[in-house]
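Schema walk-through. Below, the input block comes first and the output block second. Nothing else is stored per chain. Lengths vary across the set, and this one has 531 residues.
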Amino acid sequence: MSSEKDDIYFTIEVQPLEYPDFRYTGGTKCISEMLTLQFGEILDYIHQHAEIKILNRLRTEKNPEEGRRLLELGRVEGGVQGILTMNKAISELPESDWRTAHQYIRNVLQKEEMDEQLLQEIQSPAEDFVSHKIKVESSEKQGRYVVATEDIEVGETVLKESPFVSYLHASHRYSNCATCLRSVLFGVGCTQCNQILFCSQLCRDQGVFHKTECGNTDILPPNGPISTVLRIFTSRGLSFFMENLQSFNPGSPEIQLGVGKEMSQLFRLQAGCRQDSMYRMEKYVWTYYLLYLLKRLGFFVDQEPGTFGREEVIVAMLIQHILRIADDNCHEICELGVPEDISMQLVDIVQNMEDVSSLMRVIGAAIYLNTSFFNNSCDVNTMKFHRGCMEIMEAKRDIRAGDEISDFYGEYFFLGDRLSRKKNLGFSCCCQPCQENWPLKDQLPTFTADELKEKAEWTRLCAELNNAATQVDLQRTKTTCKQLGRLASVQSPHAALVMPEMTLNFSNLLENNSKSLEFLFWHPSSALSKN
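--- output ---
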C-alpha cells in the first residue's frame, strides 16, 4: 500500500483535551465507493484519503520545579482551592515528595475544621448487587426490557453496578480519580507523566490502562463514547483480544443479569440501530482514528506505519462494532458541584428541588452491562445516583410484580411535549406517556376541594414536606415523599404524584450522590458527606 495520500476527504484535527474535530468533504460519491468495499479495503481507502492533525501538544513529562511552585501556591490559597492546587502539584512532583504534599493538605483540613476521616469515606468501595426481584424479558415491540418478578417497595435497591468500562472527563483529571472517578483528597500521581491522578495506591494499581496511555493523554479523546471504546482496548492489551476472539459473541439469547464483567456480555448489548450510509461512514472513520491512536500508543508490535495487518484488521472490526454499542449504551457519570452563586445556601436550593439539577456535573462516561437493559420511560419508576463510577438504582415508587422497571434518559413527560421529547431523545419512545400523549404539568389533573377534604393526612404531609425541606432534613424529606406517593391513591398522570417523586429523587441525589470537594467545603454537613 502506498504511503502517498490521494485527495483528502476525511480530516480529523486533535487539539489537546478537546473532542476531535471531524470534517468530511467527500460527498456521496466517496461514500458510495467506500461502502462497496470489504472491511480491510475500507481501512485502506480511508487511509488514502484521511489526514489526522495533532496540534499544540501539551508537556506531559514531570516538572518538579513547577510542582514545588504549585505546592507553595496551594499552601497560600488554603481552603478547597488550596487542596486542588496541591493535588495538581502532586502530578508534577516525584513520588518522594507526595507525603509532604499530603501533610500540607492535612494542615488545611485542620485549619478548616474538616473531618479527614469523613472526607475519606467518599472513597469507600461498594460491591455490585442485582436484586433477585428483577429479570430481562423481550418482545417484538419493546425488544429487551426489565420487569419485576416480585413487588418492589419505594426506596428499595434494584441494582448497584460498577462499569464494564469508564472514562474520566479530561477536565477533571486533577480533581478526580482516573480509576474510580471519586474526588481526590490525597492525590497519588503517575511516576512518569503529569496528566493523571488517583485517589489511592490501590486505584493506581487497578488503573492498568495508564500503562498504555501514559505520556499521550493530551491527544486522547477527552470524553464521550469513543473515549470508553478506546479504554476497553488500553485496559487489556492486544494479546487478550487475539487469544479470546472466539468468546466475543453474545452466546445464548436468554439474558441473565449478574455481577460479571465478561467481554461476551458487552456483545449482548444493542449495537446502533442506524443503518444510513452517513452513519456507517462515520463509524468507519472513527474506527480508523481509534486504530491510529492505538498504533501511536504502541498497542501493536512491529507493525510498519501505513499498513494494516491481520491483527489491525481484527481489532478494527471489534472497534467498529463496539462503537455502535457505545452509541446506544454509554452513560454519563455525575457528581454534585457548587452553584454558580457560591453565596447561595443549600436550603435555597432544597426549597425548589428542581434547582438541584443545576448542581449536577458530568465528570465522565461509562458502559454498564446491566443498566443498559432498562428501557426509557418519561414517567420513570426508578431513581439513580453515582458513587464514583458505580451506578445505583432504587425504586422511586412501589413497583408491582409484572411491571416494567424503567430508566431515565433525560425527559419527563410533564416538562416537554411528545415531539420535543422525541427530538431530545433521538428516538420514538414506547413508554406509556408517549403512547398516550400525557398532558404537561400545568394541565395535569389535580385534587378538587372536596377531594382534599377527604385527604387531611395527605394535606398535613405536604406541609410536613415543606418544613423538612426548609430544615434540609433529607431523611425526613425522603420519608415524607414516600408516604405522600402512597397516600395520594391515584395513578399517573396526576399532579399529586409529580412533586413527591421529584423531591424524593433530588433528595436522594443530595444525600447519596458523589460530591466534589468544592461541594463538601461549601456544605460540610456530615449528613450530606457520608456517601
